[in-house]
Design goal:
The protein is of the alpha+beta class and 150 residues long. It has four helices and seven strands. The chain has a seven-stranded mixed beta sheet with strand order 1-2-3-4-5-7-6, with helices on both faces.
């Protein structure tokens, strides 16, 4: 059974392309298949175009990569583009711990935190709502959620 007692982060590098693609595939494929259908070539190309290692922290449990978080900060907002955790490590409080760290720092910096979630990803949406996020906007397939500045 995977342990999660020692969670750490490391900066991503260009060499993490395959790792982040694998993590994204494992974490999101079921949702993407249901909403749009899955196409390996399209997903590879999309990841190639959007991969930005300077925005990514690799999440590690006991020095094993188990996920990643991708964020961009502006003067007023922390935008979370991805928070993806391998299935074996989900439902263990890791996502909550990571989000609370982001929310704590955003509170100190007096910034809002914004993210998007697919409507069919109810577990993630429930986590975000439990942490105080509210739906700002609804698209055909996503919710744009925000936790306002404190």
């Amino acid at each position: 059974m995977p342990t999660t007692s020692n969670i750490s982060y490391r900066a991503a590098t260009k060499d993490d392309f395959a790792l982040t693609l694998r993590i994204k595939t494992n974490a999101l494929r079921q949702y993407i298949e249901e909403v749009w259908g899955w196409d390996d070539a399209y997903q590879y190309n999309f990841h190639s175009e959007s991969f930005g290692p300077t925005r990514i922290l690799i999440i590690q449990a006991n020095n094993t990569a188990i996920g990643y978080i991708e964020t961009v900060e502006t003067e007023t907002t922390v935008h979370i583009f991805n928070i993806l955790i391998e299935a074996a490590y989900q439902q263990k409080g890791i996502g909550t711990r990571i989000l609370n760290n982001i929310l704590d720092k955003a509170g100190i910096d007096k910034k809002a935190v914004q993210l998007e979630v697919l409507q069919i990803n109810t577990k993630a949406r429930q986590l975000y709502e439990r942490l105080g996020f509210v739906i700002l906007e609804k698209t055909d397939v996503k919710y744009i959620m925000v936790k306002a500045k404190i």
